[in-house]
Amino acid sequence: MATVTARERLVQAAVEAFAEKGFTATTTRDIASRAGMSPAAVYVHHDSKEDLLFHVSLEGHRAALGVVREAVAAGGSPVEVLRRAVHDFSRWHAANSRVGRIVQYEFDALTPEHRAEVAALRRAIEHVLRDVLDDGVRRGAFAVADVAGTARAILSLSIDLVRWFRPRGSEDEHTAETIASLHADLAERMVAA
Amino acid sequence: MATVTARERLVQAAVEAFAEKGFTATTTRDIASRAGMSPAAVYVHHDSKEDLLFHVSLEGHRAALGVVREAVAAGGSPVEVLRRAVHDFSRWHAANSRVGRIVQYEFDALTPEHRAEVAALRRAIEHVLRDVLDDGVRRGAFAVADVAGTARAILSLSIDLVRWFRPRGSEDEHTAETIASLHADLAERMVAA
DNA sequence: CGAGTAGGTAAGCGCTTGCTTAGCATGCCA
DNA sequence: TGGCATGCTAAGCAAGCGCTTACCTACTCG
User: Fold this and answer.
1) Separation of alpha carbons A129 and A147, rounded Å
2) Which of A64, B101, B144, B154 is deepest in the core (most CB within 10 A)?
3) Cα dihedral sign for B2, B8, B9, B12?
4) Protein CA at B111 to nucleotide C1' at D22, angstroms
């Protein structure tokens, strides 16, 4: 089972192509050739180009939601939980900036039905962060007037990463860690009582 | 001179279309028909579709840079200057979210030469903010370890606005002002000594 | 009045797009 | 051995793309 299926190879090719050139600018021929297959092969495994985008988008959102949920579930003081959630969320976006870029910028290219499904996951992510802030305020650890707005702003730090962050080889690990820690620091300052 | 020239009408049509559907998904026929003209009219006033994008992108970046520069030039204490710069920058992005979306997300669609020109303005904006932070640190008003990273994070708040903010009628003014003030608050907290 | 120019259009060229169709090789099971 | 499912491809269709060409009209100015 170590072999990557043809289906999965096409998904990975699509991630590369979409991240590099955007959804509309990517041709199905491009995806196929990156996967080392003929143009028609795309349609053996996937219904349409949009279907491929939806798959990438859905899995990407699920992974990101999983990251924050786990960070929160690990428990600790409000400050610890917030720091871990922000750190891991930014870290994930740095490590998966290609998927992140697709997920964030190609949202409008989805069909209305698919968009609605993805939007639900998006709201779930915001919800997790709002709960963290609410909890911290209740316990007197945070002083936040506008919880919804602040939650959105904190997420903006991580999400906007994918706009400018470009992995470039060996120093990645270090750079990603530096940014993630910075974001944890900044988030903590934003809500400090 | 109150009449809008045909050239300008095409630019406005392009802004609408690019913001709504993205650069590659927008057809020159779409731009022309939004401007109430025939497809060929686009090429009477502009060299190419990319030329139109470059025009929008350049003017957008110039306006945004102008906003922060003016906010800084107005002077005051480090905190006052930072708050005004962040407030006005976010405010501009809320008021011009369509242009902002084009400017931020269609950067890669520019030709290499045009991209370089726009990139210079981008760096100039970051530079202004870094100077504000440096100055505040020097005068003991701010405590910031990573000035470059923090400057980028603060700008992320405003820029990420264009991803999710959608103007919707009468309450715009109020909403935009609320967000801009929130961002000024958060930026101040991020750097507070 | 007649020439030049600015601002526009109808038609269409050459190419690329997403996707389909018809058929072929391979491996599994009766 | 034969039948059939699976996974793939060569070829190509209809539609749409950015952009050009050839032409038309209205206005300005000597």
Assistant:
1) 9
2) B154
3) negative
4) 30
Q: Return the number of other C-beta atoms located less than 10 Å from residue A114's C-beta.
A: 18
Residues comprising chain A, all counted: 193
Q: Shortest CB distance from A189 goes to which of B105, B156, B189? A: B189
What per-residue confidence (pLDDT) applies to A3? 59
d(CA A144, CA A19): 36
- Does the beta-carbon distance from A182 to B105 stay under 8 Å? no
Length of chain B as a residue count: 193
Give the pLDDT confidence score for residue A142 in this predicted structure.
Answer: 98
Q: Does the CB of B108 have a partner CB in chain A at under 8 Å?
A: yes
Identify the CA nearest to B155 among candidates B173, B137, B130. Answer: B130
The token pair at B101 is 């979306």
- Stretch among A117-126, A171-180, B20-29 having the lowest mean pLDDT: A171-180
pLDDT over 60 (residue B2)? no
Question: Across the A/B interface, how many CB contacts are shorter than 8 Å?
Answer: 63
Residue A170 is predicted with a pLDDT of 67
- The single-letter code of the amino acid at B169 is G
- Is the Cβ of A160 closer than 8 Å to some Cβ of chain B? yes
Give chain A's count of helices (H) and strands (E). 9, 0
Secondary structure of chain B in the HEC alphabet?
CCCCCHHHHHHHHHHHHHHHHCCCCCCHHHHHHHCCCCHHHHHHHCCCHHHHHHHHHHHHHHHHHHHHHHHHHCCCCHHHHHHHHHHHHHHHHHHCHHHHHHHHHCHHHCCHHHHHHHHHHHHHHHHHHHHHHHHHHHCCCECCCCHHHHHHHHHHHHHHHHHHCCCCHHHHHHHHHHHHHHHHHHHHHHHEC
Q: Do A182 and B22 touch (CB under 8 A)?
A: no
What type of residue is B111?
T
